[in-house]
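The instructor's notes for this session suggest beginning with a concrete chain rather than abstract definitions. Hand out the sequence below and ask the class to guess, before any prediction is shown, which regions might be ordered.
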Amino acid sequence: MISVPLSVLDLSPVAAGTTAGQALRQTTQLARRAEELGYRRFWVAEHHNMPAIASSAPAVLIAHLAASTRTIRVGSGGVMLPNHAPLVVAEQFGTLEALHPGRVDLGIGRAPGTDQRTALALRRTVEGLSAEQFPAELASLMALFSGEDERAPMLAMPGRGDRPAIWLLGSSGYSAQLAGYLGLPFSFAHHFSAANTEPALAAYRATFTPSPWLEQPYAMVAVAAICADTDERAQWLSGPAALSFLRLRAGHPMPLATPQEAADYPYTEQEREMARQRFADQAIGSPETVGRKLSGLLDRTGADELMLTAQVYDIGDRIHSLELIADKVAGGLARP
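After discussion, reveal the predicted structure:
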């Protein structure tokens, strides 16, 4: 059996009654504790125009996190490439790698990370809203790090010679196959696309071609994991995440509610069922429950690594969740 490393994905949740500054300081606190507990990497995600998420500028936040820690890998989960010029991304992450060699991950996604109106503000043209150019943009970005694009020679400085680990992120078979064809490590968003996890990983492994970046396929699965001393406490703590999901689906995103506010919300039967389906295949509960859920996920997917994410109101509860998993769950997680 092979021990499976655990990592953390954080969205810098902005809780009701707090500020973005507080959220970012809590993300820093969480990253430091994750490093102390032995988690392998700590990623932050790009989202825009969302009052509950403060991680709108991953490169800036990663620079701060890298300077605030010593050994843990830091990175993006991810940078939404269609929102940015490949040269800018290469320079930003080349700078991060130059400052913190061997510690930087560049996770790339193709979704806008926001609504269409905000995506238009980011991409500036209606034509830019399409993701059709994503493969070409990704190839251009990779060439800027390697210096191998003879058609349009251009120097990314820093960038060439300061190459972070590049990952492709996705929630569908498209990104999985592209990651396989390009020979890149692949991270799948099981936390919001659970039904597609196994087919996507199968497609990734079936299409994988060794590359200068990676010799064998390497798949990471991101899963919502909220661990508390009891199942009841964990379910209570998961309430704000469920309510945030429903509000986002309804087009009314708000700061993360308190657990009591989430419990008092007048859910319809349809909303309760939507929330139940959203979290049915995630890892929420006591250490025993979380361990069973994560072990089952590993058995089904054969993932090489798990990345844990938790939208929890209180930073103390978020930290305690990571502590419980590191102390009582991690040692029992392995794959054949």
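Then share the key points. The first strand starts at residue 2 and ends at 3. The mean pLDDT is 92.
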